[in-house]
Write a structure and sequence with these properties.
- The protein has 14 helices and 13 strands.
- It is of the alpha/beta class and 382 residues long.
- It has 2 domains: 122 residues, Enolase-like, domain 1 (2-Layer Sandwich), CATH 3.30.390; 240 residues, Enolase-like C-terminal domain (TIM Barrel), CATH 3.20.20.
- The strands form 2 sheets. Strands 4, 5, 6, 7, 8, 9, 10, 11 and 12 form a 9-stranded mixed beta sheet that branches.
- Helix 1 packs across helix 3.
- It is globular and about 65 Å long.
- The two termini are 29 Å apart.
Length: 382
């Protein structure tokens, strides 16, 4: 039986890939959450990797539970961000070992998956936003789009005065019938303002209202959800299972949005999805950039019995996220007819670009006496 023998990170400030290697030379690729990833890599080698050495790579639930117990004094977001790197690498390892895509390991099937075009921008006029989204609808066939309202954690101060009131009716008119509209407020409003805006969104046929008030104030979110008919969504920032249980018990949201890399990996994301399903709630995970988070989400979403209608797919390119450039040897995010395609290749179905790896900071934790395979020897100088 294979045992985990070596754990590596390849990190920049923005992103850290994780490679898990077993004593038989088999391996898998994962990723920690984005941003401050160089700090997360240090947490990974200090608090995650030592507990994983010698473990059975197949038993992901037991290993995650062990790390949570051993590191119980550090239950915060950095531990979960680092743990996501181990978890996602082990799912890739298992897929490669069994020669199956992760979606198949979860009981789903590869193939097309509906996506919505997700705009990250607020520094854009309603006219410019609608023009670029209409262009993407025409070129790539999207039938759902998301745009931003309010200002991030804005306490009712808009990105500029009147933008929210202007962009809601404009987008409804400009996009026309047949296009689902979603909005993200990024914790931008107080409760009275959030309810006012929620009713305006309803009047214009918008279906999804994300983080209307400060996300950490669950009672406030529940108050908004109870006052409007539109689906209130949230959870992307949350990592603590107790918070998830309270969120669901309070009926604070209609749709849960765990982020695989923030919450601590695929295993914990599936726990959230199962809790939501038991309460009759839909799960539409958060995936805000074109790194492994979106690819992992594709596999998860296509296997969930309570999956939402679509995958979040960022439309922001390398000009907005320059750190996204050149991550993979192939492009897993190509859109046709508003769908992305999950391949039937093993694991996550991608290989990390060696050129990217060669420019990242490499760190490792390994078992005593571990010797890399011939494959691994190729990476010794990275």
């Amino acid at each position: 039986m294979a045992k985990i023998a070596r754990l590596e990170t390849f990190s920049t400030e923005f992103l850290a890939f994780v490679r898990v290697t077993c004593d038989d030379g088999s391996f898998g690729w994962g990723q920690t959450s984005t941003y401050n990833a160089d700090i997360t890599a240090q947490v990974f080698h200090r608090q995650i990797a030592p507990w994983a050495l010698g473990a059975d790579p197949m038993d992901i639930p037991s290993l995650i539970a062990k790390i949570e117990r051993r590191e119980h004094k550090y239950p915060g977001t950095y531990r979960c961000r680092a743990m996501a790197g181990l978890d996602t690498a082990l799912w890739d390892w298992r897929g490669r070992a069994e020669e199956k895509p992760v979606v198949a390991l979860l009981g789903g099937t590869p193939g097309p998956l509906r996506a919505y075009a997700s705009s990250m921008r607020r520094d854009i006029t309603p006219e410019a936003e609608s023009e670029r989204l209409k262009r993407l609808v025409g070129e790539q066939g999207f039938d759902a789009v998301k745009f931003r309202i309010g200002a991030e954690c804005g306490a009712d101060v808009d990105e500029w005065p009147g933008r929210t009131e202007a962009i809601i009716p404009h987008m409804a008119r400009a996009m026309g019938a047949g296009i689902d509209l979603l909005v993200d407020a990024n914790s931008g409003f107080t409760v009275p303002r959030a309810i006012e805006i929620g009713r305006k969104l309803q009047d214009h046929g918008i279906q999804h209202y994300e983080e209307p008030v400060p996300y950490w104030e669950l009672e406030q979110t529940a108050e908004v959800a109870a006052a409007v008919d539109i689906d209130v969504t949230g959870g992307e920032q949350d990592w603590d299972m107790a918070t998830w249980r309270r969120m669901i018990a309070l009926k604070a949201v209609d749709i849960v949005q765990p982020d695989i890399m923030y919450v601590g990996g695929l295993h914990r994301s599936l726990e959230v999805a199962r809790m939501a399903a038991a309460a009759g709630l839909t799960c539409t995970p958060h995936a805000a950039n074109l790194s492994l988070v979106t690819l992992c989400t594709m596999h998860m979403l296509k296997a969930l019995p309570n999956a939402g209608k679509y995958l979040e797919l960022s439309i922001e390119g390398d000009d907005y996220y320059p750190w996204q450039r050149g991550l993979f040897q192939n492009d897993p995010f190509r859109v046709e007819a508003g769908r992305v395609t999950i391949s039937d290749a093993p694991g996550w179905g991608v290989e990390i670009n060696p050129n990217w790896l060669s420019n990242a900071t490499h760190q490792e934790t390994k078992a005593e006496g571990f010797r890399p395979s011939a494959y691994q020897a190729l990476y010794q100088k990275l």
